[in-house]
Specification:
Blueprint (H helix, E strand, L loop, with lengths): L1 H23 L4 H19 L3 H21 L5 H13 L2 H26 L2 H18 L18 H16 L1
Helix pairs in contact: 1-2, 1-7, 2-3, 2-4, 3-4, 4-5, 4-7, 5-7
């Protein structure tokens, strides 16, 4: 029973986050905080007081892992917070599966986008120049933002939603 509630709750929040991201390129902090608070409640309900430690660990892992991607603007803060929300509600196995599946979904979305816009070669050139600049400077740099607007941006929240759906299929 609790599993179904958590599944529906997570799916609802992730769907609302993806819709918001598509509309405004932002994910509401209220939505994230609601999910994280419910995640703490779920963990304490299932594991007792020890659930607080699991909760804190699972909320922290995505922030620690993906902070470098945020620094170079390859991943948005809202996307990282979505992973923290999933970790707070579910735990390490679902979190890790969601992360892996999300990045695979994002790769597929990105490939489709560059093929659709017929700019794979130019995007690979930008990436190669970025890697060269990072290696030459010896530090992380911001990934180049194009003057063409958001044409090259994917809504990673959609990939997280897809990744979560895949994780639920694997888990159950």
């Amino acid at each position: 029973m609790v599993g179904e509630v958590k599944t529906l709750f997570s799916l609802t929040l992730l769907s609302v986050a993806a819709a918001s991201d598509m509309q405004s390129f932002q994910i509401s902090n209220r939505l994230i905080v609601s999910g994280i608070l419910m995640g703490c409640i779920f963990q304490v309900q299932e594991l007792g007081v020890g659930g607080v430690g699991i909760f804190l660990l699972n909320v922290s892992i995505p922030v620690i892992l993906f902070y470098p991607l945020f620094l170079i603007r390859a991943l948005g803060a809202g996307d990282i917070k979505l992973f923290s929300m999933i970790g707070s509600i579910w735990g390490l196995q679902v979190l890790c599966t969601t992360i892996a599946a999300s990045f695979l979904a994002a790769a597929a979305m990105s490939l489709f986008k560059v093929l659709f816009h017929r700019n794979l070669t130019s995007r690979l050139r930008v990436f190669a120049e970025y890697i060269s600049a990072v290696l030459a400077s010896g530090r992380l740099l911001r990934y180049p933002q194009e003057s063409q607007g958001k044409q090259h941006v994917i809504h990673f929240s959609i990939a997280v939603l897809i990744g979560y759906a895949i994780a639920m299929e694997v888990a159950y």
